[in-house]
Write a structure and sequence with these properties.
464 residues, alpha/beta, Alkaline Phosphatase, subunit A, 2 domains, 9-stranded mixed beta sheet, 4-stranded antiparallel beta sheet, 15 helices, 29% helix
Length: 464
């Protein structure tokens, strides 16, 4: 039986018994690499509204999700459970039918719990959110339909406390929204994990324009909250989900895949213009919200509350954040597991003898973006960077170790450096313990049989 951490309530009751439980507004971007945002050192994107929100709140320098794919990371965010625990351990799969999520936990405490925009979790029984209108549901529509703030305005203006999740669909591909002309390709500073080809620069400019378009939506949402008169009563969380659809980000266990942006803001209650190095993970968010709401539950979670980081200046939280990738149905099986302590990342490629292939990124076409072909077609004698990035992406060693603090894009694998042997052993042992706790057999999970079992609600692996 998997050991779980039991959740108990008591935080805000210590602050003031008469104080009403806060509302919660969670804004989720889609496929936005955290360090493409200026608040994390991004050199290109213009995000005045996210910057403003950050100036009004607390920035988490070390926030992670367990799986760098839309559906598993959202299931983790809403349930407080890792992918193997809730059952959604592949993209386009499903959580276990008996899984519970935010609506189950907050509705008994008097909250309305709604979701607007992209949902991308199932089954409905496990995620019984109120449907809130006004934002695009489909992340690949070209163009994205205009949003309407009326639905979220009405949801915010009710007398009952609310928890509202707004899931935007930018900057998910296709990169067609926003004004790419404000990002001249010759001026772009490409991240070092991307091959520098003209086609890459063009698509990166389109991606940056979508980040700015998404930022405008964030500004409108926060303005709507302000106009409701409930800003001071509401905890606002902004997160960027997993990395973008560029090689080395989404669908990987590298830092630019699993590291997410996280801002928390509530005037007078959460520090402003502040940063924290406390290590947190998506699985911690549900317990945190319940803690802040004073909501009692017998449910157990994989995550634990970091409310004291928000309200009592606690500087630490968890020791490790964990990562998992099962490549089906995004391409051939290629299971990966990883762990970070915020300074170093250890990765295990469980099918390292195989080539890594991701069909959306490498397949070409309008939705899949044709820049990959320009990497392959680049002359390796003239552009060795292209060849090196292709090799890094497709041909991976059994183990990888990175000093992420010094090497944020994790380009220098120090796994064989004996000077880091103790660190590698410590992380490897902790990863083994996590996989055991998750009833995760590793490579056998990334199979057609297991994926189809998940889709049918007949999960083959993981603790109940």
């Amino acid at each position: 039986m998997k050991p779980r951490l039991y959740f108990f309530t008591p935080l805000l009751l210590l602050l003031c018994e008469a104080q009403a439980a806060p509302n919660f507004l969670i804004i989720v971007a889609d496929d936005c690499t955290y360090n493409d945002l200026p608040i994390y050192g991004g050199a290109n994107a213009k995000t005045p509204n996210i910057d403003q929100l950050a100036s009004e709140g607390l920035i988490f320098n070390q926030a992670y999700l367990a799986s760098a794919m839309c559906q598993p990371c959202r299931a983790e965010l809403y349930t407080g459970l890792y992918p193997m625990s809730n059952g959604c351990a592949w993209n386009h799969s499903a959580s276990r039918p008996e899984t519970q999520s935010l609506p189950h936990f907050l509705k008994p405490a008097g909250y309305r719990v709604g979701i607007a925009g992209k949902v991308h979790v199932k089954p409905k029984k496990a995620f019984p959110f109120n449907d809130v209108s006004g934002f695009e549901h489909g992340c690949v529509r070209d163009p994205t339909t205009p949003h309407d703030l009326a639905g979220i305005r009405d949801y915010m203006n009710s007398d009952e406390p609310f928890c509202l999740v707004i899931c935007l669909v930018e900057p998910h591909i296709p990169w067609v929204m926003g004004d790419a002309s404000q990002y001249p390709v010759e001026r772009i500073k490409l991240p070092p994990n991307l091959a520098d080809t003209p086609e890459t620069r063009k698509h990166f400019a389109d991606y940056l324009a979508e980040i700015t378009y998404m930022d405008g939506q964030v500004g409108e949402i926060v303005k709507t909250l302000n106009e409701s008169g409930k800003r001071d009563e509401t905890v606002v969380l902004f997160t960027s989900e997993q990395g973008s659809q560029f090689p080395g980000c989404k669908w990987t266990n590298w830092n630019t895949g699993l590291h997410t942006a996280l801002i928390a803001s509530r005037p007078g209650h959460i520090p402003e213009s502040a940063r924290t190095d406390a290590l947190v993970q998506y699985a911690d968010i549900v317990p945190t919200l319940l803690d802040m709401a004073g909501a009692e539950t017998e449910k157990t979670f994989d995550g634990t509350s970091f409310a004291k980081v928000l309200t009592e200046a606690k500087t630490t939280h968890r020791d490790f954040a964990y990562g998992i990738h099962n490549n089906l149905p995004e391409g051939p099986a290629y299971p990966i597991r990883s762990i970070t302590d915020g300074k170093f990342r250890y990765i295990r490629n469980l099918s390292h003898e195989e080539l890594y292939i991701e069909k959306h990124l490498m397949g070409g076409g309008k939705l899949n973006n044709p820049y990959w072909a320009t990497w392959v077609g680049d002359d390796p004698m003239k552009s060795p960077n292209s060849y090196d990035m292709i090799k890094r992406y497709m041909l991976r060693p059994e183990e990888q170790l990175y000093h992420t603090v010094e090497d944020g894009y994790e380009l220098d694998n120090i796994e064989s450096d004996t000077g880091y042997g103790e660190i590698k052993a410590r992380l490897s042992e902790a990863l083994d313990k996590w996989m055991t706790a998750e009833s995760d057999p590793g490579a056998p999970v990334d199979t057609i049989e297991a994926l189809e079992g998940s889709r049918a609600g007949k999960h083959l692996y993981g603790s109940e």
